[in-house]
Amino acid sequence: MTPAKSDLDDTDRALLSLLQQDGRLSNAKLAEQLSLSETPCWRRLKRLEGDGFIQGYQAVLDRQRLGYGVLAFVHVGFGSHTGEAPLRFEEAVQAIPEVLSCHNLTGESDYLLQVVATDLESYGIFIRDVLRQLPGVSSIRSSLSLREVKASSSLPLARKGQALVGNGR
Fold first, then answer.
1. What pLDDT digit, counting tens, does each position of 42-88 carry?
2. Where are the domains of the chain?
3. Contact criterion met (CB below 8 Å) for 85 and 135
4. Does domain 70-144 bear CATH number 1.10.10.10?
5. How far apart are CA 71 and CA 55, in angstroms?
6. Which 8-state DSSP code applies to residue 1?
7. Residue 82 pLDDT
8. I need a surface site. Which of 21, 96, 118, 136 has the fewest CB within 10 A?
9. Considering the domain 7-50 in this protein, what is its CATH number?
């Protein structure tokens, strides 16, 4: 059984929040900021990892400094949803490093991909030589990001019993 959000206490939420801000914090620093001793802090951290609340650690890289000047949101449509084409498409997308995320959608498109490319020419080649060749793809519609206003993978972590800020309720 997957642990529920309600299984988290305020200290767990604070620990997760600190790690979202800086995944390189040492156990000693975490413990200090949480007013815990190191052993209970380490146990909490290992429990949160084991229960799947923490899925991994990675550095946040600057895509533009690394030469990826194009960020595109790509709507992919399928002609037919029967057979193994959707599964084969999903498996193939997993292996394409330019695809940062892939979501199966309701509505007009079947999938929404977030894709990076160095420039428009390389993006066009990627569409032609990679995406159009994937199983089941019948239509591709792109929206290019003109300016990134906000980019975050941090989740809102309200304390138990608190409403999330800005949820309008």
1. 999 999 999 999 999 999 999 999 999 999 999 999 987 778 889 99
2. 7-50, 70-144
3. yes
4. no
5. 25
6. -
7. 78
8. 21
9. 1.10.10.10
Q: What is the pLDDT of residue 167?
A: 39
Confirm if 154 and 20 have CB atoms less than 8 A apart.
Answer: yes
SS3 142: strand
Residue 161's pLDDT band (boundaries 50, 70, 90)? low
Main-chain dihedrals φ then ψ at residue 84, nearest 5 degrees? -95, 0
What is the token pair recorded at 142? 């792109």
Measured CA to CA, the distance from residue 100 to residue 93 in angstroms comes to 10
Residue appearing with tokens 């988290």: 8
Kindly give, in sequence order, each residue whose CB lies less than 8 Å from that of residue 145, ignoring residues fewer than 6 positions away. Answer: 70, 71, 72, 73
**Beta strands, E only, 58-154:** 70-78, 99-104, 111-117, 137-144
What does the pLDDT read at residue 162?
Answer: 61
